[in-house]
Every structure is written in C-alpha cells, then in structure tokens.
Amino acid sequence: MLALLGAGGLAGAVAATFAPPRLITWGFVLYLAATPADVLVRPGFLSPAHDGPAGDEAVAVPAALGMPIGSLASFLGVGGSVLTVPLLRRSGLPMAAATALANSLTLCISAPACALFLTAAPAAGGTVDTGALLLAAGSVDLGAVALLLLGAVPVVVPLRRWPPRIADRVHARGYVALLALVLTAMLLRLP
Questions:
Q1: How far apart are CA 21 and CA 76, in angstroms?
Q2: Contact partners, residue 81, CB within 8 Å, separation at least 6
Q3: How many other C-beta atoms are found inside a 10 Å radius of the C-beta of residue 76?
Q4: pLDDT above 70 coverage of the chain, percent
Q5: pLDDT > 60? residue 24
Q6: pLDDT for 187
Q7: How far is residue 121's CA from residue 40's CA, in Å, rounded to a whole number?
Q8: Whole-angstrom Cα distance, residue 113 to residue 6?
C-alpha cells in the first residue's frame, strides 16, 4: 500500500500542475464539505467500531485504495490524513492509532508530491496574490512553510514528550470540528 500511496501522490501532483487553480480550490472545498457530512452521517467514526483496543476486530484497509487516496490527496493538497483518518477509524482503530498511522501514510503521499512541487512552476493561468510566493521554490511558498513550522514545532515537541490523554469520542469530535474550521476559513477566502 505504501508504494501505491507514493505513486498516487506523484500522479496527483502531476495532474495538479496542469489543473487550473480554481478547480483544485473548489475540489478542496467540496471535499472538506463532504468529509464532515460523511463522518457525521455514516456510523463508525464518532462512535468507536468496538470497545477494546484494535486487534482481531480491526479490518484491513485494501491496498488497492492506495493509488486513489494518494492521487486525490496530493491533487487537492490535503496531505492524506483527511482521507486516511476516517478510513482507518472505520476499519476499527481508535482515534489515537488512526491519526498516528495516518501521519506516516501521509509521508508516503507527500514526499513524491513535494519533490515535484518544489521543481514545478505554478499552474498556467493561475493568479498569484501580490504577497504570495515571494520566497518560492517551484510552486511551494517557502514563507508559508516557515510560518507553519514556526507555529507547529513549539507545540509538537512538548506534546510528543508529554502527550495529553484525550478520550476517543472527544478526539473524534475534535477532528470533525477542525475540518469544519478549515472549511469555514476556505469559504471566507473564496472570491
């Protein structure tokens, strides 16, 4: 599955370099709208699939899903966790395991996509904000990367050393709330 995620990540990144930016933006918004609706309506996400730790009751995720997950994630720029956390959760994993595993799966998707985006120019026909991409490598805004790292590292380092204990249901609801927050931010930025 890891190789298929990587191949999908590369394929989605290639497609994104030729796609109009509005298509990617609206695809991202539609996906962000569909995901919270899906996890709220279909069973197996907000409530754990079982009461005990993942084991015999967990269902394997088909490896064939690697290519489409990787392609869609890198095309939309969602990284992969937005796709894999709900899938892993429904396979029977608790939220802590689903999110931890999704991070490593995201690396398989994002590494080849990042390599391509670092060397590719932004899509033709795309408009760029005057303040955007001042420090760019390919189509990657290095200023945004730096700000994300400056905001994340001071939080991640202590949380890795002293992880908080979050109830599974609270973790699941928080995940949905964060998706809703990102969707709201995207809707406010749309022209």
A1: 10
A2: 99, 102, 103, 105, 106
A3: 22
A4: 87
A5: yes
A6: 92
A7: 38
A8: 8
Determine the average pLDDT of the residues in 2-10.
Answer: 91
pTM recorded for the entire structure: 0.78
Phi first, then psi, for residue 54 (nearest 5°) are -60, 140
CA distance 66 to 71: 8
Tokens of 103: 């991070």
99/84 Cα distance (integer angstroms): 8
Higher pLDDT, 63 or 49: 63
95 neighbors 89 (Cβ within 8 angstroms): yes
Determine the angle formed by the axes of helices 168-189 and 21-41, rounding to 10 degrees: 150
**CA-CA distance, 57 to 47, in Å (whole number)?**
15
Share of the chain above pLDDT 90, in %: 31
What pLDDT digit, counting tens, does each position of 119-156 carry? 877 655 555 554 555 677 777 888 888 998 999 999 98
DSSP string, the chain: -HHHHHHHHHHHHHHHHHS-HHHHHHHHHHHHHHHHHHHHHSTTSSS-SSSS-SSTT--PPPGGGHHHHHHHHHHHT-TTHHHHHHHHHHTT--HHHHHHHHHHHHHHHHHHHHHHHHHSPPPTT----TTTTSSEETTEEHHHHHHHHHHHHHHHHHHHHS-----HHHHHHHHHHHHHHHHHHHHHH--
